[in-house]
Amino acid sequence: MRDDRFDGREQIGGYRITRRRLLQFCGAMAATLPLPLPYSERIAEALTSAPRPPLVWLEFQDCTGDTESFLRAGNPTIDDLLLQAISLNYHETIMVPAGVASERPLFDTVRSQRGQYICLIEGSIPAGSGGIFCTIRGRTALSIAQEVARDALAVIAVGTCACDGGLAAAAPNPTGALGVRRAIPGLANLVALPGCPANVENITATLVHYLTFGALPACDGEGRPRFAYGDKVHANCERRDHYEHHRFVLEWGDAGHRAGWCLKKMGCKGPDTRHNCPVVKWNQASSWPVGAGHGCVGCATAGFWDRLVPFYVQLSDDA
Ligand code: SF4
To answer: Which of 53, 54, 206, 289 has the most CB atoms within 10 Å of its CB?
Structure first.
């Protein structure tokens, strides 16, 4: 099928995109990380020449939202670019093989490329009752995660469920759901990308950082990359000026709501939540929840299902 998005004469390094689009993407990645713009050339060099690291993506107690987010990359798309730069050896939702054959690439990678593959984990890991609440072909999620994560070059917990258990871990947590850090203590190279779902820009930027520098991005004490979780949502919110001038929405659809005023009194948890959501946004940076008129629910905050509810009630005056 003809692909109108690129002209074959400009195709670069086996990619299905033009050099111009590649550099646009690298510029956006440099801005997200954030790095000075000249680093975009270095990112482009890495993406077109660095060895492709193998990736395996595990899914346990989840809604597939992080996979959906990953596949929603649009500028360029995942298959345009990222799947050319990495080798995605195993991903239950999008791989072709089924049944017994589907497991071969996972354990072939684990056993033949020990210490060289990156393991992404989506979903919480149930540890209650010996882990029986999530099993794949008779093996518990906990036992699979332990085997795969133990020998990985790095483990990336994608989404809030993988970071702290998410919705499944909300009280009373009947399955004993845990995030990766608690389920598999002692992992040295663990990166946490909380969010419900994790933003594809941050998943991509984390991988691009590794491809470019051969190292994971700098993280805080909870393993969250500083580039994505260094600031609170409130710090970069487009409604911040209204907050400073005490212009608050008091009722859905009131004049303040229609004028784009601050949503704090409608329960916005932006002052309690660390995330670059207002900067990277969603759907090719077209909008984000607060931009669309809904308060931040704090989905990147550990335990938000228990700690930051009710969603539509102001919980504190602190910013
Ligand atoms: Fe934005 Fe929410 Fe902060 Fe208001 S409280 S400025 S809507 S993040």
So the answer is: 206
The proportion of the chain whose per-residue pLDDT surpasses 90, expressed as a percent, equals: 71
Q: How far is CA 216 from CA 85, 130, 211, in A?
A: 16, 33, 9
Same domain, 190 and 41: yes
Could you identify the atom of ligand 1 that is nearest to the CA of residue 296? 2
pLDDT of residue 15: 66
For residue 263, the CA-to-ligand 1 centroid distance in Å is: 6
Can you give the pTM of this predicted structure? 0.92
- Which amino acid residue places its CA nearest to atom 5 of ligand 1? 264
Residues 29, 153 share a domain:
yes
- The CATH number that applies at residue 261 is 4.10.480.10
Which among 124, 147, 120 has a CA at the least distance from the CA of 55?
Answer: 120
Pocket test for ligand 1, best of 236, 263, 274 (most atoms within 8 A of CB): 263
| Residue 21 belongs to some domain of the structure | yes
Backbone angles phi, psi at 109, to 5 degrees: -65, -45
